[in-house]
Amino acid sequence: MRRDAVVDIGFGSARLGFGGEELPQVLDAGLPGLLRYDHDAVNFDPLDIEAVFRELEQLGGFRRPVLLSAPAEGGALRRHLARHSFETAEAPEVALVAAPVLAALGCGKLNCTVVDVGAGVTSVAPILQGQLHDGLQQRPFAGHALDLMVLEALKKQGVTLPDEPPDWRKRGTGFGALRLAQDVKETICFCAHAPLATLEPAKAYRHILPDGQEVEVTSFSRAIPEVLLTGSETQSWPGLPRMASEAILSSGAAACREVLLVGGSSRFVNLSQRLQRALAESLGRKVKVTSAETRYASWLGGSIACQLPHPMVRRYSKAEYQELGEDLFSR
What we know:
This protein is an alpha/beta fold.
């Protein structure tokens, strides 16, 4: 029996592999604009999706069942993915599951509130019995916005930045300024153990970039992640505690007990502890906040889901697609 292909497309990367495996075999990372969140809608360039399916073909993922992960909202994207899966990849059957549901499953959870700080969007999604519940929130402030803040901090210090590669679809096109900012964010930045406004200024610390340039990082290494918690009026960003509190209050009791923190920009030191304390203050009771151990929680959830005879995974056959069309995936 051929294993299902698992395709997890996010706002800044695509992860491809096969069911039953613990890690994706292909990771196209750092792809700003792979998906975009504009005016409360998920937008995409069809050429980018075609590039992802070319990767899937090279991996040997055609002519087998496909399980797709996609943002919780985005009917046009779901229809486009379904069409490519059936017509380009010649899949005999296709399942599509919302990314927050898969992230929860990938961490062994069926009831929780998933807080996903991804590349282009931060989402908060209550999950009850493995299904997406009312109360979903999405904001276009996430890892890429933090990368831009790091980039601005580097520019202010006169750092000479590399040019952006001309086309992410072509391998070996260089290490651009945004990738440098992402690397600095992930290796240098961290959340302070307490609200930054309550702490004394830290001593200056200089960091050497890969090209030998030196940069003073104390001025931004804690301040930039702090925005995830405090919010930003200029960015129309309410902050994680407020988003999570509102989602928890609108959901059932089971999803209220635990918050699952996932996404590449959720891995800052002290972020989960700070969020847990902030939620306790906001809600007047303790809510457990757990950080995902894997960076690829939604992909891993897809790898698990395609093996489960579970109602959360609705598979559509090629015959159903031919009869009813791609609108099957708008539901």
